[in-house]
Amino acid sequence: MKVTRTVVETRAAVAALPRPLGFVPTMGAIHAGHLALVDAAEASCAATVASLFVNPAQFGEGEDLADYPRDEARDMRVFAQAGVDVVFVPTADDLYPDGFCTQVRIKSLSEHLEGAVRPVHFEGVALIVTKLFNIVRPDLAFFGRKDAQQLAVVRRLARDLDLGVEVIGVPTVREPDGLALSSRNIHLTADERAVAPDLHRALQAGARAAAAPGSVSADVLAAASRALTPAFTIDYLAVVDADTFEQTDHVTERSLLVAAARLGRTRLLDNVRLSPSAYPERDATARKGA
Ligand code: AMP
Of 193, 210, 237, 271, whose CB neighbour count within 10 A is largest? Predict the structure, then answer.
């Protein structure tokens, strides 16, 4: 496995790899959720590139940038064992040199829900993903459905800017009790860890309500809210269209039930689809080879 640290080195390393090339961007503290993305890349690509970068541009003031878990040496061992060909570990100075002033803004879609709670977040995500796609030039890029709005933002970005990358959504990997794996879960205390799976249970209660004949979004939200313990401070709980993230009164075949909730100092994100077709793995409207 080759580790690259500069844009120039990375361009040279990826040019030597066979196609199709799969790409898995991460912020490190690698867990089985990240490895599911690597597995999906390896299953459909001739070579796999990962990146490891805690991107300061996607953290707002007062958020957990300094606190974000980091263990580069361990991450490298795990990536190597998983068969990753190249890992790009950039520095902020290389990616955002003095005078950097370009923005990538996705209107509307990135302003709802997660975008409303974390106003600079998706601008930072869109910027880093655009830069990484331009540096690595993958054919396919793999993102977790756990971060459903991020997946929608990246799909929209790739399509709108003709980046020539097909964005693949990979199902959420969970602990046996249903908690979605996340690098931030290590901050949960033992008591918080014990109640954390209730978030997913509440979403499942919402999904069951959605399956009842004639139910509307209000019924789904009521069922999910009833199932949530007071330990959580809810940032949002909503029925949304999986592409636009607009909230809808009615449940459709594109509906997701999404939630963000805080448990102590840890913020948990999760979602379930309310119809089997709500999250196609591949983006049917993406233009390949652009
Ligand atoms: P992060 O390092 O948290 O920025 O995540 C990097 C990628 O891994 C993103 O595409 C996430 O959606 C994805 N990811 C994180 N947790 C999971 C999980 N539990 N299951 C599947 N994908 C995940």
Answer: 271
pLDDT tens-place string over residues 178-222: 999 999 999 999 999 999 999 999 999 999 999 999 999 999 999
Strands (E), 166-265: 166-170, 233-241, 255-263
Quote the CA–CA distance of 84 and 80 in Å, as a whole number.
6
Give the residue from 154, 122, 121 showing the smallest Cα distance to 140.
154
Protein residue closest via CA to atom 5 of ligand 1 = 26
Tell whether ligand 1 has an atom less than 6 A from the beta carbon of residue 37: yes
Pick from 180, 205, 186, 191: nearest CA to 269: 180
**How would you classify the pairing of strands 47-52 and 140-144?**
unpaired
Ligand 1 neighbour 181 (Cβ under 6 A): yes
Binding site membership of 147 for ligand 1 (Cβ less than 6 Å): yes
Distance 142 CA to ligand 1 centre (A): 9
Using CA atoms, how far apart are residues 183 and 107, in angstroms rounded to an integer? Answer: 28
pLDDT tops 50 at residue 159: yes
| Cα 213 to middle of ligand 1, angstroms | 34
User: Ligand 1: distance of its center to the CA of 146 in Å?
Assistant: 7
The response to whether residue 36 sits with its C-beta less than 6 Å from ligand 1 reads yes
Q: What is the pLDDT of residue 283?
A: 59
Question: How many whole angstroms separate alpha carbon 279 and alpha carbon 269?
Answer: 17
Query: CA geometry: angle at 123 spanning 121 and 127, to 5°?
Result: 120
261 neighbors 233 (Cβ within 8 angstroms): yes
- Stretch (H or E) spanning 51: strand 47-52
* 121 is annotated as an active-site residue: no
H-helix or E-strand containing 193?
helix 190-195
Distance CA 250, CA 258 (A): 15
Query: How far does Cα 112 stand from its chain's mean position?
Result: 16
